[in-house]
Amino acid sequence: MFGVWSGAIELGGMLFVVLWGLIAAVVAVRAGIARRAAVDVRAGRVLASVGYRRFLTTARRVNLVIILALLAATVGPLMMLSMDPAAAAFLVPWAPSLAWAAALCIIGGALITTLVLDNLLNAVFVAPLVMSALRGYPASRRELLAAPLKQGLITYLPLLVILEAAGLLPLLGYLALAWVALAAFGGWLLARALFAERLRRWLIRTEPLDRSPWAAVAPRVWAWAQLAGVPLAGVRVQYTSRLGWANVNLSGWRRRTVYLSDGIFTEADWRQQDALFAQALGVARAPRRWALARHSQSVVSLIVIGLLLAVIFGVDPLSSGGPGVALLVSAGVFILLGALFAYLVYDLVRRRVSGNASFARRILANDRYAAELTGDPLALLVALNTLTALNAMSPEKRLGGFPTIVERVRALDAIVHEPGPRAPWATRPVPSVVPVSLGPYQVTVPLANAPPPAAVPAVRYTSFAPSATAPASTYVAPTTGASS
After folding, report:
1. Residue whose C-alpha is closest to residue 298's, from 199, 192, 197
2. pTM over 0.85
3. What is the pLDDT of residues 49-90, one digit of tens each?
4. Three-state secondary structure along the chain?
5. Distance between the two ends of the chain, CA-based, in angstroms?
6. pLDDT number for residue 227
7. What span, in angstroms and rounded, lies between the C-alpha atoms of 95 and 117?
8. 397-426: burial string, b at 16+ Cβ within 10 Å, e else
9. How distant is the alpha carbon of residue 137 from its chain centre?
10. 33 with 62: CB under 8 angstroms?
11. Cα–Cα dist 268/263, whole Å
12. Residue 358 burial by Cβ neighbours in a 10 Å radius (0-12, 13-18, 19+)
């Protein structure tokens, strides 16, 4: 048996050694970059937030090595097998026509396990230093290791199983069962979409807001939801600060659940908290296109895998029409693949040309909604800067189709100077851990000076004159991070 499989074992072993050695070297380089950044921060040469951003910039360049190596490890063997019958006979001597299946099994396993290994080594040797020295969060290795392990179980493990099954079953003479494995993978994608809420709570520790240390805020949150007329399934705290990030997001199909990071309660005052929650309410009341788009990626993945399997095997296992039917099926599959590829290219171009602009307009419109609901655009302006500091991001950085923080702040600064609904405290400086200035005007005070929360209004605020602090001015990005 070993002699029959010797070619596949030799290629697979060589591929695993090369890729795993590359990952070990890359992790060592990342750790060295983190150590140098930590030395600069401890010596006072740079701020921790600046050191973290420099680390990310350099680490991204190193990551390009991984991407190029993975592409070479994938494309190279596949091209060799497609052009060299001797290579196919070496890999699968008893069925050279199934060399594609063997390559799928070997290369798929190598790629996925390499990604998992990279995540695990990074969590053990790099992330603890980055979190403690550059972010100020003393997260333990156990905490940092739990996230990639759980993510691997729900993302990489099912994909690894389907690729290995799709490669091994044809080699063992069970071609039809490869399609059963594909159906099982489709079932998993569907289950992951249906039980996304439970998976989220398993991946990251969460608890209902009214059972958290910030339970006193819960009545205020529900009062805003009632004022906005947005029904919610729940509001939960997600404990992400020790993992180095903070955000506000939603989950669920019909009635949404709002997730607020714990950093929002420890590093922001009640005005900022109101603004961020109002922003989440704006997303919850919008059409469900964003959530449907996210789940449609799973459907596209399933279609692509099925079409690739059909191309690789070249036959329809449910059909016995002979070579003519097999040729027809293969031709049809190639046409479908071509159409799908053309659509993906079109969608990418459309998003680049107009889609991102449309998405950015929706984000800015939602910012306006939150500012008008709370009557406090200045609070949302400061809250965006607080989240930027908690995530150690650059205000000029563009993520996907989102407008930059600088663009959103400028839009909110314009709203401050427009007539509109205003809370009685809307013109007062906002307590914040991050000093924020609009031109020469300081619009924040230290967080320790935060007054007690005011009551949530029973009705929407009415319009009156805009803030008279100053004409709209140049935004000055904060240069200091949030306190730890």
Report:
1. 192
2. no
3. 667 777 877 777 777 777 677 666 666 666 566 556 776 666
4. CCCCCHHHHHHHHHHHHHHHHHHHHHHHHHHHHHHHHHHHHHCCCCCHHHHHHHHHHHHHHHHHHHHHHHHHHHHHHHHHHHHCHHHHHHHCCCCHHHHHHHHHHHHHHHHHHHHHHHHHHHHHHCHHHHHHHHHCCCCCHHHHHHHHHHHHHHHHHHHHHHHHHHHHHHHCCCHHHHHHHHHHHHHHHHHHHHCHHHHHHHHCCEEEHHHCCCHHHHHHHHHHHHHHCCCEEEEEEECCHHHCCCCEEEECCCCEEEEEEHHHHHCECHHHHHHHHHHHHHHHHCCCHHHHHHHHHHHHHHHHHHHHHHHHHCCCCCCCCCHHHHHHHHHHHHHHHHHHHHHHHHHHHHHHHHHHHHHHHHHHHHHHHHHHHHCCHHHHHHHHHHHHHHCCCCCCCCCCCCCCHHHHHHHHHHHHCCCEECCCCCCCCEEECCCCEECCEECEEEHHHCCCCCCCCCCCCCEECCCCCCCCCCEECCCCCCCC
5. 59
6. 94
7. 32
8. eeeebebbbbbbbbbbbebbbeebbbbeeb
9. 21
10. yes
11. 8
12. exposed
The number of residues in the chain equals: 484
Beta-carbon count within 10 A of 159 CB: 17
Residue with tokens 């179980």: 153
Q: State the pairing for strand pair 256-261/441-442.
A: unpaired
Residues 397 and 347: their CA atoms lie apart, in Å, by: 23
Q: Cα separation of 369 and 371, whole Å?
A: 5
Q: What is the rounded distance in angstroms from the CA atom of residue 413 to the CA atom of residue 425? A: 16
Quote the pLDDT of residue 392: 78
**Which pair of structure tokens corresponds to residue 78?**
């596949």
Residue 378 has pLDDT above 80, yes or no: yes
Residue 364: C-alpha distances to residues 279, 337, 357, 359, 408 (Å): 10, 37, 11, 9, 7
Tokens of 286: 């919008």
